[in-house]
Automatic annotation (TrEMBL), chain A:
The protein, known as: Putative sulfite reductase-associated electron transfer protein DsrM
Residue stretches spanning the membrane: 7-26, 32-54, 127-147, 175-196, 208-228, 255-273
Repressor among keywords: no
Keywords noted in UniProt: Cell membrane, Electron transport, Membrane, Oxidoreductase, Transmembrane, Transmembrane helix, Transport
GO molecular function (one): heme binding
Places the protein is found: Cell membrane
UniProt-listed GO biological process terms: anaerobic electron transport chain
Pfam assignment, any one: Nitrate_red_gam
NarG-like domain span: 123-281
CC annotations in GO: plasma membrane
Main location per the UniProt record: membrane
TrEMBL record, chain B:
Name of the protein this chain belongs to: Putative sulfite reductase-associated electron transfer protein DsrJ
Keywords: Membrane, Transmembrane, Transmembrane helix
Lineage: Bacteria, Pseudomonadati, Thermodesulfobacteriota, Syntrophobacteria, Syntrophobacterales
Positions of transmembrane segments: 6-24
SUPFAM superfamilies per record: Multiheme cytochromes
């Protein structure tokens, strides 16, 4: 699919997903969209992610294939870089922590440029890293803030997070920065895809669809909080019902909420089957989570089978007489 | 499965963390709040649906009118004039903060900053 087709396809898909709960709730299917779909989506999320991880874990990784960019550990007087080229578990753990929490491999991103005729230079390109950090961390804050809908009494840490998130104290209800940053982050990641020609060329519907889905989820959330407000107490009755397995669907929650809930359910259900599962996959990347011990330790291929060998001694035993007859040198004469 | 010593604890950690809303509420009842409605009056300054979702916006607007413009009178959509005041307006009917305001605010985890300036009514409950 070419770029504009991919974008249109994803837009139409999200559009249909927005319309479904809109029509369904108007037809009185609140318990279907408020209870059944969320439960199914969450079940699919857990089963899917666990199955995916187990499937990955069933692939043998016989050789160490870390991508390295530092001096390997060798002789004691040669200084090695245990972070860029880890030789032990400590180095690997540190490398993984920095990768998972700070997206180090994106930070290293470089761009090739041509200048002054046919000269090439590599420039650091941090925008992807910055966009990714903004997007992922604001999404995390938004997700954690939603715990206020899933617990009574609410954990004080959630209130602390809300306090930090809304420290500007703008407007009523208080403006949360994470909501705006999330929208900005998704918008940036989308614009990046459509403005860089090479990136546009390799982008697929599976790249655009999650971006549009998350953008719609975030914007329905922002709309519900600041503009077309919904009755938060009824919403919490519904979410607490889901969390305590006593589902209820209170009357009079706006359909905007059901759109939000349905799209979140779609995101959860879609998660294990899409690129989004990198949340689990980052921990299982063999180019990151292996120590570079290819020379220090003997790694045996688990699917090695016993090889039938025919040594020279056996060969000579078999053909000795004929070799002597032909005048060929032999190691053992009778 | 390879590396099950790392994979299985990882999966347990993942499921444990992500099911927090389910196990943290185990065996807890979460009754919906029941704010006590005033017995003296039947109608508020706006209708119930509006007050449920937009009361904070209205109060914020009132605050600006009173504090910045020294205007204490608000003309409701029903043509009646109301006094813009928490103590002498809202709380004339909604007499108890604990039985009215706090009911939903505590449930939804909201702590409005009304009472940073206004004196909180002393209630013996």
């Amino acid at each position: 699919m070419n770029a504009s087709r991919s974008i249109i396809f994803s837009l139409v898909a999200v559009g249909i997903l927005v319309c479904l709960p809109l029509i369904g709730v108007a037809a009185g299917m609140t318990s279907f969209f408020g209870v059944i779909i969320p439960y199914l989506a969450v079940a699919l999320f857990f089963i899917g992610v666990v199955a995916r991880v187990v499937r990955w874990a069933r692939s043998p990784v016989p050789f160490r294939i870390p991508t390295t960019c530092g001096q390997q550990k060798s002789l004691p007087w040669i200084q090695s870089d245990n972070l860029e080229n880890p030789s032990d578990t400590k180095g690997v753990v540190l490398r993984m922590i920095l990768e998972v929490l700070l997206f180090r491999s994106l930070f290293r991103n470089a761009r090739m440029e041509f200048y002054e005729g046919p000269k090439i230079r590599y420039a650091s390109a941090k925008w992807l890293w910055l966009g990714a950090i903004v997007f992922h961390y604001s999404f995390l804050v938004v997700l954690l803030r939603h715990l206020r809908f899933f617990s009574t009494p609410i954990n004080p840490l959630v209130h602390l997070l809300e306090g930090v998130d809304g420290f500007l104290e703008v407007g009523v209800p208080r403006l949360y920065l994470s909501g705006l940053l999330l929208l900005a982050g998704v918008a940036f990641l989308f614009l990046r895809r459509v403005t860089i020609p090479q990136l546009k060329y390799i982008s697929l519907p599976s790249d655009y669809f999650p971006l549009f889905l998350i953008f719609t989820i975030a914007s329905t959330g922002v709309l519900m909080r600041y503009i077309y407000k919904v009755d938060v107490v009824s919403v919490k009755e519904l979410t607490m019902g889901l969390a305590t397995f006593h589902p209820v669907t209170p009357e009079g929650i706006g359909s905007l909420f059901y759109i939000h809930l349905f799209l979140v359910s779609v995101l959860f259900a879609y998660f294990p089957f899409s690129k989004l599962v990198h949340m689990a996959g980052v921990f299982l990347s063999p180019t990151r989570n292996l120590a570079n011990t290819n020379r220090m330790v003997r790694h045996i291929n688990p699917w090695n089978y016993p090889v039938k060998v025919h040594t020279y001694e056996e060969y000579e035993d078999e053909f000795r007489e004929k070799m002597i007859e032909a005048g060929l040198p032999v190691e053992k004469k009778e | 499965m390879y590396d099950s010593g790392k994979i299985i604890p990882g999966i347990i950690l993942f499921v444990g963390l992500f099911t927090f809303p389910f196990w943290s509420n185990m065996g807890k009842a979460a009754p919906a709040p029941k704010p006590e409605l005033p017995k003296t009056a039947k109608v508020c300054v706006m209708d119930t649906a509006f007050m449920k979702t937009e009361h904070m916006v209205l109060l914020n607007h009132w605050r600006d009118k009173v504090v910045r413009e020294a205007n204490r009178v608000w003309l409701g959509p029903d043509g009646k004039e109301y006094k813009m005041s928490i103590q002498n307006g809202c709380m004339q009917c909604h007499t108890s903060k604990a039985k009215f305001c706090d009911q939903c605010h505590n449930y939804a985890g909201v702590s409005p900053y009304c009472w940073q300036c206004h004196l909180e009514p002393k209630e013996n409950l």
